[in-house]
Write a structure and sequence with these properties.
Chain B: It is found in: Cell membrane. The complex is a heterodimer of chains A (about 500) and B (about 375). Chain A is of the alpha/beta class. Chain A folds into three domains: about 5-240, P-loop containing nucleotide triphosphate hydrolases (Rossmann fold), CATH 3.40.50; about 260-335 and about 425-505, 3-Layer(aba) Sandwich (Rossmann fold), CATH 3.40.50.300; about 345-420, no CATH class. In chain A, about 30% of the residues lie in helices and about 25% in strands. In chain A, the strands form six sheets. A six-stranded mixed sheet of chain A has the order 6-9-10-3-11-12, sandwiched between helices. In chain A, strand 16 and strand 17 form a beta hairpin. The longest helix of chain A is centred in the middle third of the chain and has 16 residues, at about 175-190. Chain A is globular and about 65 Å long. Chain B has about 375 residues and is an all-alpha fold. Chain B has a domain at about 60-300. In chain B, a hairpin with a 2-residue loop joins strand 2 and strand 3. In chain B, helix 3 (about 50-75) crosses helix 12 (about 280-290). Chain B is globular, with a radius of gyration of 22 Å. The model of chain B is unreliable at about 350-365 (pLDDT under 50). The chains are: A alpha/beta (about 500), B mainly alpha (about 375).
C-alpha cells in the first residue's frame, strides 16, 4: 500500500459450469506492491477465480483490467505475457531435473541450438540474491527440501518476468521456521514492487502477512477489509457464513487401558532405506496422542505399518493386547482399527465410484451388505443415506460419484465410514489437510467425541496448531524415531519446531 | 454449434460417426472407381438381407462377444489382456481334442465337459500371466503377447507330434467332431438358410448377462472394479490386490477360451493349424473398447464388427471390390466409430462448454 495504483481489477466476474455458478459477480482489486489475502472455504470459488486470472479458465461474464487496460486472458501464455504468475499448491516440478533446468523449462535461453546454461544460471543467481531465495541451481529437485522446492517455483515465475504473483496455500507444506522465512520472502517481494495474491485458510497468517483481505463465500464477494481493521473471529464468520467456535471445548481425558502398543519398530521405506528406527510408544483408551514432525520423517511408514500396508522388519505392534505385526490389512481392520488416510483421493476413496459404494468399501463383504457374494445394493444405499444425514455430507444423492463432492465432503465420507465402525483405535493421518475452517471444526469435534467415548486416537499431522489443540500428549518424530515427548500445555511452537528438526529435548529418555 | 441434451448427443454422435465412416469409405471407393452405392447395398444385403447372411452375421459375432467380455473383465481390473488370441486358441484346441478323444460319450456329458475344458485351458494361459504379475510385477502386456506365440506354436507341435493320428485327417487338420460334442443345432441352421449359426449365440447371451451380473451385483465384481480403479484405496480397504489380479485374469482367460470353444465346436467343427494369432482375439479387443466395456455395448459392437466382416465378403463377391479396398473401407468405418470423441466436439451440451470435463477437474482441485 505504498502506492495506490490498481494492477488488477476483476469486475463482476461470473463463471458458470453447467448452470452452477462457481463465481457469481466477484469483484477484486490488487494494488501495486501489496499483499492481498484471498480467503474462502473450499468450493467458495477462490481457485476458479485465480484460474481465470491465470488463463486456465475463461469467465462467462465480467471484465478484467490489468494495469489500467482491459484484457481477455484466453490462455496461460497471455497471463504470462501480462506478468501474472502462479505458485500452485502442488508444485509443478520435474524431480529428475536440476533446479536450473526446472526454472528455465519452457523459457530456455539458447545459443544457436545449444542451451545457454551459463547465461541462465547468471540470471537465476541475480534473482535469488535479490529476493533472498537461496537454492543450489545445480541440485536435482528430488534432492532438495519442500521449502526449497517452493523457492524454485517462486524463482520460476520471477524468471518468466512475473510481477503479479499468486500463491495457492503456500504454507501448507512448511514447518513453523520455514513459514517465518517464507513470510520474510513475501515481504521482500512486496517491497520490490511485486503485487501478491495469497490464497489461504490460515487466519493467523493473514494477520502476519497481508495488507488487505478479500473474502468470498459461495461464489460471491463478501467483503474487502484492511487486515488491521478486522478480527480473526470476524473473518472466520464471514468465510463460513455463521458463527464459528474456534476454541475447542476439551474435557479432561479419561484414560483407560493401553489399546496400541508399538515396540521397537523397524520399517524400511519404498526405496528400502530404514524409515522407522526402533520406534516405541503406547496409546491408551480415551487419549489423543499427537505425532508431530516434518513430512518424510517416518509418518507414512508408521501408518502403513500399523494398518498392515507395509512389511515390518522387526519389532511388534499390539492392538488390544493382540499381536498384529505383519498381518493382513483386513485382519487388522477387523481387530477394531479405523484409519483416516492422509491422501484421501489416493487411499481413502475410489473417486469414480458412488458415495454409497465408497461408504461400503470396508463392509461390503460382510452380512447383511452381501450374502453369498451377492451385494445387497438396496441396503448399501440405505446405510449410505443414514450416514449422509448423520455426518452431514452435502450431496445431491448417494448414487452420485464421490468425485462430485467438495474436498470437505469427500473427507466427511471417509470420516463417516471410519467412525461409524465403532473401532477402538482410530488412526487419523492429516485428517484436515486442505480443508476449510468449517470442515476442520467439524472433524475436530468428531475426533473429540470419539475421545470422550473412550476411543484411542493416534493423530499424525503436519499442522502444529491441530496437534497442539487436540492432543493430550505429543511425540515428535524425527528421522524415524522420537526426538521428544511433550505435553501441549507446557510446550511452545518454538520448542516443537526445534524437536522437529532433530534437536533433542534435554532429559528425554528417547534417544 | 448445435445445442443438445447429453443423451441426444450421445446417440447423434454415434450415428454421425458411423455415417462419416461410410462416407469416407465411399470416397475411397470412388477414388479407385468403384461404385460405393452398389458396394454398400451388397454389404447390407449379404450381411442382413437374407436368412443365411443373418445367420452367418450372428455366428461371426458370437466368439467376439466372449473374447470382448474377456478383455473387458481384465480391463476392469486395470489390465490390458492382449493375450486373447492365445487364450482362445487354447480353448479351441482343448475342446476339439477332448470331443474327438471321446466320441462315444453321451452328449449331455461330453458337450459340457468340452466347454468347461476349453474355459479352463484359456483360464490357465491367462492365469499364468496374472500370477506372474501378482507375484513379481511382470508387465502383463509383454507376457500375454508372448503367450500368444507360445500357444500358437505349441498348438502346432501338439497337433503334429502329440495328437494321436486317429484323431486327425493330416498333420494340419483334425477330423470333424461327432454330433455329441457339437454346438450345432440343426433346426436353427436350417431356419437361417443352412448357415453355421449355432448354440454358441445362446451361450453368448448368457455370458453377457453373467458379465453384467458379476461386475455390478457381486462382491467379486466390486472388488475387481475397485482394484482396477484405485488399487491403493482397495488395498487400504483390505482387499487383496494379488488375489484380484489372478482372479480377473482367470475369468478373462476363461471367457476368451470359451470364444475359442464356440469357434471350434460351433463354427468349424474341427481344429486346423493356425499360422497367425486368432482374429477373434484381436477383434474381441476392439469390440470391447468400442463397446466401452459395458455389456450392451459389447453386444452391439460385436454385431457391427460381424456385419462389416460378413458384408465385406459380399462386397468382394457381389460388387467385385478387391479384398484390400474392402479392408480399408471397414477400417475407416471402425476408425470413425472409435474417434467418436472428436465428433462429439462438434456439439455443445446445453449450457456448458465442450471442455467441461477438463474444467471440472480444475475446479475439483480447489482445496
Amino acid at each position: 500500500m505504498k502506492n495506490t495504483t490498481n494492477v488488477i481489477e476483476m469486475r463482476h466476474i461470473v463463471k458458470d459450469f453447467n448452470g452452477f455458478k462457481a463465481n457469481n459477480d466477484i469483484n477484486l482489486t490488487l494494488q501495486k506492491g501489496e499483499i492481498l489475502a484471498l480467503l474462502g472455504e473450499n468450493g467458495a470459488g477462490k481457485s476458479t477465480l485465480m484460474n481465470i486470472l491465470s488463463g486456465l479458465l475463461t469467465p462467462s461474464a465480467g471484465e478484467i483490467v490489468v494495469r489500467g487496460k482491459k484484457v481477455t486472458i484466453k490462455n496461460p501464455t497471455i497471463a504470462k505475457k501480462l506478468g501474472i504468475g502462479m505458485v500452485h499448491q502442488h508444485f509443478m516440478l520435474m524431480d529428475s531435473f536440476t533446479v536450473l533446468e526446472n526454472i528455465i523449462l519452457g523459457h530456455e535461453v539458447t545459443k544457436g541450438i545449444r542451451l545457454d546454461f551459463k547465461k541462465a544460471q547468471q540470471e537465476i543467481k541475480e534473482l535469488s540474491q535479490r529476493y533472498n531465495l537461496n537454492v543450489d541451481p545445480l541440485k536435482k529437485v528430488s534432492e532438495i527440501t519442500v521449502a526449497q522446492q517452493q523457492r524454485v517455483e517462486i524463482l520460476k515465475i520471477l524468471y518468466r518476468g512475473a510481477d503479479i504473483m499468486i500463491f495457492d496455500e503456500p504454507t501448507a507444506v512448511l514447518t513453523p521456521q520455514e513459514i517465518t522465512e517464507f513470510i520474510q520472502i513475501l515481504h521482500g517481494l512486496a517491497n520490490e514492487g511485486k503485487s501478491i495474491i495469497l490464497i489461504t485458510h490460515k487466519l493467523e497468517e493473514i494477520k502476519q502477512v497481508a495488507d488487505r483481505v478479500s473474502v468470498i463465500r459461495a461464489g460471491k464477494s463478501v467483503g474487502n477489509f484492511k487486515v488491521a481493521d478486522v478480527s480473526n473471529n470476524r473473518l472466520a464468520e464471514l468465510m463460513v457464513g455463521r458463527h464459528v467456535n474456534m476454541q475447542l471445548d476439551k474435557a479432561p481425558a479419561i484414560i483407560g487401558k493401553t489399546i496400541l502398543k508399538v515396540a521397537n519398530l523397524n520399517v524400511k521405506n519404498k526405496q528400502n532405506i530404514p524409515a522407522l528406527k526402533g520406534l516405541s510408544f503406547n496409546l491408551r483408551a480415551g487419549e489423543i496422542l499427537g505425532i508431530a514432525g516434518i513430512d518424510g520423517n517416518g509418518q507414512d511408514e508408521l501408518v502403513q505399518a500399523l494398518t498392515g500396508l507395509t512389511h515390518i522388519d522387526s519389532g511388534h505392534v499390539l492392538i488390544n493386547d493382540q499381536e498384529t505385526t505383519n498381518q493382513e490389512v483386513r485382519k487388522i481392520t477387523e481387530k477394531g482399527v479405523s484409519c483416516i488416510p492422509a491422501d484421501r483421493q489416493k487411499f481413502g476413496l475410489i473417486l469414480p465410484f458412488s458415495i454409497a459404494d465408497n461408504l461400503a468399501i470396508q463392509s461390503y463383504y460382510k452380512k447383511p451388505y452381501s450374502h453369498h457374494h451377492v451385494l445387497n445394493h438396496d441396503l448399501i444405499k440405505q446405510h449410505a443415506q443414514k450416514l449422509v444425514s448423520q455426518f452431514d455430507i452435502r450431496t445431491t444423492g448417494v448414487e452420485s460419484p464421490v468425485s462430485d463432492l467438495s474436498g470437505g465432503n469427500q473427507q466427511k465420507v471417509i470420516i463417516a465410514r471410519e467412525l461409524s465402525r465403532d473401532s477402538n483405535l482410530i488412526i487419523a493421518f492429516q485428517p484436515t489437510r486442505g480443508l476449510d475452517v468449517g470442515a476442520i471444526e467439524y472433524i475436530h469435534h468428531q475426533l473429540l467425541a470419539q475421545r470422550a467415548k473412550g476411543k484411542a486416537i493416534l493423530l499424525i499431522s503436519y499442522e502444529l496448531d491441530e496437534i497442539m489443540q487436540l492432543s493430550d500428549r505429543i511425540i515428535v518424530l524425527h528421522d524415524g524415531n522420537i526426538s521428544g515427548e511433550v505435553k501441549p500445555d507446557d510446550t511452545s511452537d518454538k520448542e516443537l519446531g526445534l524437536l522437529m528438526t532433530g534437536v533433542k529435548k534435554e532429559g528425554t529418555t528417547f534417544a | 454449434m448445435l445445442k443438445v441434451t447429453s443423451k441426444t448427443k450421445q446417440n447423434l454422435v454415434l450415428i454421425i460417426s458411423i455415417l462419416a465412416g461410410f462416407l469416407v469409405g465411399a470416397v475411397i471407393m470412388l477414388v479407385w472407381s468403384y461404385n460405393p452405392l452398389q458396394a454398400y447395398s451388397s454389404m447390407f444385403m449379404s450381411a442382413l438381407g437374407n436368412m443365411n447372411g443373418l445367420g452367418e452375421t450372428i455366428r461371426e459375432a458370437t466368439p467376439l462377444i466372449f473374447t470382448a467380455i474377456g478383455f473387458a473383465i481384465a480391463s476392469n481390473a486395470g489390465f490390458f489382456n492382449i493375450g486373447l488370441p492365445g487364450q482362445a486358441q487354447a480353448g479351441w484346441l482343448t475342446s476339439i481334442w477332448l470331443v474327438l478323444a471321446n466320441p462315444n460319450m453321451p452328449k449331455f456329458v461330453l458337450l459340457p465337459l468340452a466347454i468347461v475344458a476349453g474355459i479352463i485351458a484359456g483360464a490357465i494361459v491367462a492365469g499364468i500371466a496374472g500370477w506372474l504379475r501378482a507375484q513379481f510385477g511382470t508387465n502383463e502386456v509383454i507376457t500375454t503377447i508372448m503367450f500368444n506365440y507360445i500357444v500358437l506354436y505349441s498348438s502346432q507341435y501338439l497337433m503334429q507330434q502329440i495328437m494321436p493320428s486317429r484323431l486327425r485327417i493330416d498333420t494340419d487338420t483334425t477330423k470333424t467332431i461327432s454330433a455329441n460334442g457339437s454346438l450345432k443345432i440343426n433346426w436353427l441352421s436350417s431356419m437361417f438358410g443352412d448357415s453355421r449359426i449355432n448354440a454358441g449365440i445362446f451361450l453368448a447371451i448368457i455370458a453377457v448377462f453373467l458379465y453384467w451380473y458379476l461386475m455390478k451385483k457381486t462382491t467379486i465384481g466390486f472388488e475387481i472394479r475397485s482394484v482396477g480403479t484405485n488399487p491403493f484405496a482397495s488395498r487400504y480397504a483390505g482387499m487383496s490386490t494379488k488375489k484380484n489380479i489372478i482372479l480377473s485374469m482367470l475369468l478373462s482367460g476363461g471367457f476368451a477360451g470359451l470364444g475359442g470353444v464356440v469357434q471350434g465346436l460351433g463354427t468349424y467343427q474341427n481344429y486346423f493349424t493356425q499360422t497367425t494369432s486368432l482374429d477373434i482375439g484381436w477383434d474381441g479387443l476392439s469390440v470391447a473398447l468400442l463397446g466401452g466395456g459395458t455389456a450392451v455395448g459389447i453386444l452391439l459392437a460385436a454385431l457391427l464388427f460381424s456385419i462389416l466382416k460378413i458384408g465385406g465378403l459380399g462386397m468382394q463377391t457381389i460388387a467385385g471390390i478387391p479384398y484390400e479396398i474392402v479392408s480399408i473401407v471397414i477400417a475407416a468405418i471402425i476408425f470413425f466409430v472409435a474417434i467418436q470423441y472428436v465428433i462429439g466436439l462438434l456439439f455443445k451440451d446445453k449450457g456448458s462448454t465442450p471442455d467441461i470435463e477438463k474444467v471440472s477437474h480444475i475446479t475439483e482441485g480447489e482445496q
